Structure formats: C-alpha cells, structure tokens
C-alpha cells in the first residue's frame, strides 16, 4: 500500500485529490496538511511514502517544508503541485530533491499514475512540462565557458545525461541509445550515485548548472 499525505491550503483541493486517489487499490491517503509547518508535523507523525506538496501556503511555504522533510526523511517522495508550470518556487523544490511536479488541473488518472511512479522510484514530469523546464534551464545557461567538474561519469553515462537534458523520458533515451529500458534505469542510478543527487530531474539541473549540455534539442 502506498501511503500519501496531501498538503494544500485549499480544502477543496485536498478533498478532490483524496477522492481521486482513494479509488485506486494501491493508494491510501493517510493525512492532510493546510500549511508547510503542518505538513512537516504530519510527515513526522505519519511518515507517508509520498507527499503532494503545494508551494504557496501560509504559515510555512511548501519550499521550506520540502527542505525540512527531505532533511529528516530523505526517502520520502515529494511531488510539487502548483498552479504555475514555470514557477520559480517549483525549480527550487526540484533542486532540493522533489521528484517532480504536477499542475493542479492534472487529469485524475495522471495524478494516480504520478503517485504510483513516485512511490516506485520514478520521477514525475510529463514530457510537455519536462521540455518546458529544460527550455527554461537552457535560457538561463551561462554563456561564459566554465571548467568542467570532475564528475567521474563514463562516456555512456554522459550520453544519458545529454539525452535527459534534451527533455527525453527514459523510454525515449532507451530508443535513442538502442538499449533496454532496464539498462537506462541502471545508468541513471549510477549517475545519481556519482553526482550525489536523488532524481533524474536533479541530473538535468546539474548538467545545466555545470554547462555540460552541448546542444539542447528544445525548440
């Protein structure tokens, strides 16, 4: 059973998400929180597998709560839920280790799929939003050359990083490299360990911050 905590300052959103999620036999909503502070308290009490975390909440925002939760419970899978698909706070949450983000108008079936994917160790970013996020990183990319970090990645692993940074999902990476999906997932796991990051989203952030992306495919 996947246990879920819903953190949002709007009661109608919390109740709506619970209604969608509890229809699935693998998911149990174990608690609600109306603020970032309350979210942290509820995580401490309930230790859910997945937290749906709103960003803009009173009495402790979701960004601070994400940082505090992952500091104490690093295995918790946090999905940022927001009204804005390019909100600065969302980028901050992903940087801190949230496994992805969803928009509040996400289709109910996609919400369920996202919770299951997060619990199973995946990242939660639709191809549409992934490419928009990558485009934003490309826009911010420093033009001045920087010294490449000593990352210890193999040539094959760097190829995976390049494809992820182009906005491709795991299946698309597997097709591009003519590899099994399981092999791609293994490469991503090795990359995360070498870079000391938790998610494929953080791999992309690392690549752009260190000027490691040679050619973005985003148009």
UniProtKB/TrEMBL annotation:
<keyword id="KW-0597">Phosphoprotein</keyword>
<dbReference type="InterPro" id="IPR039420">
    <property type="entry name" value="WalR-like"/>
</dbReference>
<feature type="domain" description="Response regulatory">
    <location>
        <begin position="3"/>
        <end position="119"/>
    </location>
</feature>
<feature type="domain" description="HTH luxR-type">
    <location>
        <begin position="146"/>
        <end position="211"/>
    </location>
</feature>
<keyword id="KW-0804">Transcription</keyword>
<protein>
    <submittedName>
        <fullName>Response regulator transcription factor</fullName>
    </submittedName>
</protein>
<dbReference type="InterPro" id="IPR001789">
    <property type="entry name" value="Sig_transdc_resp-reg_receiver"/>
</dbReference>
<dbReference type="InterPro" id="IPR000792">
    <property type="entry name" value="Tscrpt_reg_LuxR_C"/>
</dbReference>
<feature type="modified residue" description="4-aspartylphosphate">
    <location>
        <position position="54"/>
    </location>
</feature>
<keyword id="KW-0238">DNA-binding</keyword>
<dbReference type="Pfam" id="PF00196">
    <property type="entry name" value="GerE"/>
</dbReference>
<dbReference type="Pfam" id="PF00072">
    <property type="entry name" value="Response_reg"/>
</dbReference>
<keyword id="KW-0805">Transcription regulation</keyword>
<dbReference type="InterPro" id="IPR016032">
    <property type="entry name" value="Sig_transdc_resp-reg_C-effctor"/>
</dbReference>
<dbReference type="InterPro" id="IPR011006">
    <property type="entry name" value="CheY-like_superfamily"/>
</dbReference>
<dbReference type="InterPro" id="IPR058245">
    <property type="entry name" value="NreC/VraR/RcsB-like_REC"/>
</dbReference>
